[in-house]
Amino acid sequence: MDLTTFLIQVLNALQYGLLLFLVASGLTLVFGIMGIINLAHGSFYMIGAYMAFVLTSMTGNLMLAIALGIPLAFALGALLEKLLFVHLYKRDHLEQVLLTYGLILIFEELRSLAVGDDVHGVAIPALFSASIPLSETLSYPVYRLVISAVCVVLAVGLYVLIQKTRLGMMIRAGSHDREMVQALGIDINRLYMIVFALGVALAALAGMLAAPVSSVYPGMGASVLIISFVIVVIGGVGSVWGALVAALVIGFADTFGKVLVPELAGLAVYLVMAAVLLWRPEGIFRKG
Amino acid sequence: MIPASISIAFRIAALLALAAFPLVGSEFYAEVVAKILILAIFAMSLDLLVGFTGLVSFGHAAYFGIAAYAVVLFSPPFAAANLWWVLPASMAVAAAAAFVIGLFVLRTKGIYFIMVTLAFAQMTYYIFHDTALGGGSDGIYLDLKPDATVAGITPFDFAEPLHLYYFVLAALVAVYVFLTLVLRSPFGRVLVGIRSNEHRMRSLGYATFWYKLAAFTLAGGLAGLAGFLYAVLFGFVTPEYLSWHKSGDVLLMVILGGMGNLAGAIAGAFALVGLQELFSDWTKHWQLLMGGVIVAAVLFMPGGLAALPGRLITLLQKRSGRG
């Protein structure tokens, strides 16, 4: 592999890993703070991608679609939390698995009723549609760099939110000791709603950003869901920074697995996971 | 609680109904019921782990699929393998895979266990999906169903749907009785003890790891029996047999039926596949209804189907007590 190809693969791995981090961060927050295993999290990614498709065809611009889509996704998350997930906090993990599995089926069929089962493309905004030439034959699309940049900005934003703000303090406290947070007079229900809606919005945003690159297709939520769970577990359940590290590890394992051993590309991610968990059975950054 | 005599009478009635079904129902529905019975065996094997030992495996389809591939790969091309060696051999391959994977996954606990079992199942999925071993992503056909000839006598013939149906039913009863006996044995008591409190079992001197590994291997072998029968019933095997959807479906059957209850696992298989067949008859968008039922079941029916008769009786007693 020459240096240019290697560089391209590194950029691809980074972009894929960072995008996965957006999905996985919401999943790990919801599990770490609310104690909920949400199998329907991949559906929010799928819903985001389809929102990008529908809103872009209505407004003619992906950036406008994203600006509209984020508040919509946040509202959807808040609504779902109030109607359904609020009943799951005291339930067994297995019942959570069951209910959220039912939600996957519902979301997939609603998607099929509303938009159909065809594969759709979403146009890259004209502003970012160029490519940067790296050699005579190879170039790198600007839009992929934009995705990575947006993800980095969001990761930093999430860091500031969790480490430096009052809300972040409550989130951190909530993940350590739920009862104590309540005893201190913090409205835990509101906190849960915000965390859940934030997770939904992040997953939907990842779907919207990915739509032009991966196109929009039925079942796109399922593959992302499994990979996101792998990331959450490798990183240590509930740890956002663990999720970031794990997402990058998985991004590189998957991308270079496909380049180096194409026959067994699917295996690479799971081999990494098995190896990490045998080394540290509770993930890289397990919480104390 | 329901009196034991009623419970036993109900089980015998259910068995008689299943035995009589292919004689009165159509051939199509007999095949559907045979499929459900096989999945019920699969669900009981998982219930041994989830319901009785407290090990939530999200990768149980691996052993189902490995045995399904084993029967095809063991059969000579365009000829039938002999049932009496290919059945135990397929189950043994599945059990051996469960033993090896169990050595690794049983080091983890809780959600980590759920995810590592999934990871290993996905690995087996990709091995069959990405390599030419079993026909790749297209899957592979079983040219001829295994031949039951023993010492020159052929007691039954799997090409006859009726014979296959009764073989499957007999297998279901055998697994039910076998697991009931296992759970009553000292070994089964240790498993249930591990579910309630593994630390205490260990401090009592039980090497819990090896008990869990034995349960994991046994469950893998029984899932292999289900996979074997499934491959024989449908005559082909695809990587989908090992996919996480299959692992999820069987877990749903166990949860829906009520964990830690073998009859519940059977009821869960009937409920899930029965609803799938019913809804897909009505509409193309049957998953919407299925999803709605599952969500409603969790919200309004804690404890699964197995808890339903008990709850109904309590409700009736309250009513009559008041009136």
Description:
The complex is a heterodimer of chains A (288) and B (323). In chain A, 75% of the residues lie in helices and 2% in strands. Chain A has 11 helices and 2 strands, in the order H-H-H-H-E-E-H-H-H-H-H-H-H. Chain A has one domain (3-220). In chain A, strand 1 (131-133) and strand 2 form a beta hairpin. In chain A, strands 1-2 form a two-stranded antiparallel sheet. With 288 residues, chain A is mainly α. Chain B has helices at residues 4-24, 27-53, 61-74, 83-105, 110-130, 161-184, 186-196, 198-203, 208-234, 244-257, 262-282, 286-300, 308-322, and strands at 140-141, 236-237. The relative contact order of chain B is 0.17. Chain B is mainly alpha-helical and 323 residues long. Chain B is 74% helix and 1% strand. Chain B has a domain at 27-243. In chain B, helix 2 crosses helix 10 and helix 2 crosses helix 11. Chain A binds chain B through residues 31, 37, 84, 87, 91, 93-95, 97-99, 101-110, 112-113, 226, 229-230, 233, 237, 263-267, 270-271, 273-274, 277-278, 281-283, and chain B through 50, 56, 104, 107-109, 111-112, 115-116, 118-120, 122-123, 125-127, 129-131, 244, 248, 251-252, 255-256, 259, 285, 287-288, 290-295, 297-299, 302.
Give the helix/strand layout:
The complex is a heterodimer of chains A (288) and B (323).
Chain A: H1 3-34, H2 41-59, H3 62-83, H4 93-115, E1 131-133, E2 139-141, H5 142-164, H6 166-176, H7 178-183, H8 188-214, H9 220-235, H10 240-260, H11 265-279
Antiparallel strand pairs in A: 1-2
Helix pairs in contact in A: 1-5, 1-6, 1-8, 1-9, 1-10, 2-3, 2-4, 2-8, 2-9, 3-8, 5-6, 9-10, 9-11, 10-11
Chain B: H1 4-24, H2 27-53, H3 61-74, H4 83-105, H5 110-130, E1 140-141, H6 161-184, H7 186-196, H8 198-203, H9 208-234, E2 236-237, H10 244-257, H11 262-282, H12 286-300, H13 308-322
Antiparallel strand pairs in B: 1-2
Helix pairs in contact in B: 2-6, 2-9, 2-10, 2-11, 3-4, 3-5, 3-9, 4-9, 6-7, 7-9, 10-11, 11-12
